[in-house]
Amino acid sequence: AQSVAQPEDQVNVAEGNPLTVKCTYSVSGNPYLFWYVQYPNRGLQFLLKYITGDNLVKGSYGFEAEFNKSQTSFHLKKPSALVSDSALYFCAVTDSGYALNFGKGTSLLVTP
Amino acid sequence: GAVVSQHPSRVICKSGTSVKIECRSLDFQATTMFWYRQFPKQSLMLMATSNEGSKATYEQGVEKDKFLINHASLTLSTLTVTSAHPEDSSFYICSAQLIAGPYNEQFFGPGTRLTVL
């Protein structure tokens, strides 16, 4: 079985400050981890993924995430938040290359 | 590359009618496509896995006779919501799987907003 936990329903951060959106996972095999962003009434946009290799993954729009096997975490980070980063963020996992299991989502609000 | 389209983007229908949603992989072939459903401010829930040339695999609790899936070609999967009711109103998102490397990555369509009156 596989699952993803995003413990925060909402994250608020001031523009220019660093942001972190948390994600922890549970899988039986090797995890393949993803972050997606969703704007209102839109589909998912891919941000970044961890498949193998370097634990620090850099993605689109200045986002990055660190794979931490011991803590089973894959937190999304950005050094300096923009108002335009305000959106719904989903963490997802699979261990089989099969369908993704999504977290419940975290709403990010960046205030000017 | 790896673009997935959905049509229509929005549809409003009367209760009891059927609605077809198309999912196309525009620049790659996809033997497997997935259909997800998303309620407002909630996560995506996998409904079914669509396999080209064979029957779809439905997740537990999803009525296969209500949500008909046809994967007619390597670039097209359709989801038909039959005898739609207001509770079927939702955001439907498809993804297409690209086979490349150790992981078969999914690419998502822009979604279809279904409103049943």
Secondary-structure blueprint:
The complex is a heterodimer of chains A (112) and B (117).
Chain A: E1 3-5, E2 10-14, E3 19-21, E4 24-26, E5 32-38, E6 44-50, E7 56-58, E8 64-68, E9 73-78, E10 87-94, E11 101-102, E12 106-111
Parallel strand pairs in A: 2-12
Antiparallel strand pairs in A: 1-4, 3-9, 5-6, 5-10, 7-8, 8-9, 10-11, 10-12
Chain B: E1 4-7, E2 10-13, E3 19-25, E4 32-38, E5 44-51, E6 57-58, E7 67-73, E8 76-81, E9 90-98, E10 105-108, E11 112-116
Parallel strand pairs in B: 2-11
Antiparallel strand pairs in B: 1-3, 3-8, 4-5, 4-9, 5-6, 7-8, 9-10, 9-11
Write the H/E string of chain A, N to C: EEEEEEEEEEEE
* Beta-strand segment tally of chain B: 11
Low-confidence stretches of chain B: none
If helices are DSSP runs of H or I spanning 4 or more residues, what is the number of helices of chain A?
A: 0
Gap between N and C termini of chain A, in Å?
41 Å
Distance between the termini of chain B: 37 Å
Stretches with pLDDT under 50, minimum 5 residues of chain A: none
Reading the helices and strands of chain B in chain order gives EEEEEEEEEEE
Protein chain pair with the most extensive contact, residues per chain: A-B, 24 and 23 residues
Mean of the pLDDT scores of chain B? 90
Strand content of chain A: over 45%
The biggest beta sheet of chain B reads: 7 strands, mixed
Q: Tell me, what's the shape of chain B?
A: globular
Which structural category fits the helices and strands of chain A?
Answer: mainly beta
Mean pLDDT of chain A: 92
**Which range best describes the helical content of chain B: under 10%, 10-25%, 25-40%, 40-55%, 55-70% or over 70%?**
under 10%
- Rg of chain B computed from alpha carbons, rounded to a whole number of angstroms: 14 Å
Structural category of chain B: mainly beta
The share of residues in extended strands of chain B comes to over 45%
The multimeric state of the shown protein is heterodimer
**How many individual helices of chain B?**
0
